[in-house]
Design brief:
Shape: globular
Helix content: 25-40%
Distance between the termini: 68 Å
Largest sheet: 11 strands, mixed
Protein name: Glycosyltransferase 2-like domain-containing protein
InterPro entries: Nucleotide-diphossugar_trans
Number of domains: 2
Length: 289
Amino acid sequence: MRTIENKICSFSGKRKIITQRSSVAENWRYGFLFGKEGERVMGEKVISAVVLVGGNYDKELLKRCLDSLSWTDEIVRVETDGISGSFSEWRNTGANKAVGNWLFYVDSDEYVTPELKNEIFLAINHKRSLALRAQPLAISAFAVPRSNILLGRQMRWGGWWPDYVVRLIKKDALIKWEGELHEQPEIRGSIGKLKNPLIHISHRSLTEMVDKTNKWSEIEAELLFKSGHPKMNVARFLSSGFREFWYRGIRKLGFLDGTVGIIEVFYQTYSRLITYAKLWEKQQSVIRI
């Protein structure tokens, strides 16, 4: 057993930093990371986890998330409630406060499996598994497959898997995160891929799904409106709904996920139509003025 110290930084609406230190005991099994008595070996890469926590976060999910990150050297917790800005700005804030050589981004409704933890250590310390040997050594970041759990089912079809997201990044290779909703990192260097998934507890109920859709569709509609999207009409409504249904249900075989898969195919079509309906509403308000 070895005792390590984790630092959790919480950012309030006024950007005040609250530092809390706690001792976490864990049995470290990775011999190439620590010496015989648990001391760090020369050349180990320090890992900072950056966790985004929204205003209406689920305490149980957040606890699972933080517990799954107890092996990291630092946890930077960025609380977004009451803070103006975008996901990119919040992720950049976390990067600026972190001290690790590597940044590992995890949201509060996600958690890390032991297999993924092990693979991360292997990857950043170049103890390369068979899956990684074909990739170049000069990798600056890794994309992680995300396993989405929707209505209690692990999704494998409908475009939900493998859902790669770039989350493990060398700090000195990160230029910035950009994009207001579907944010992406700008990185110097190449991006590799890991094989073990990050678990994402997404929609747990239809009520939760509708609430999220109402929130995110408003943001997406506003972005489309500001970008000067062409005026919505019957043809554009029909084509947007048809494209989403075709992609989820036919091209990506969403029905193979059973009842939940069929619900998701129709729900994602509905979500797309709601976004464009809100865009139409914004366009109409300008016309009236």
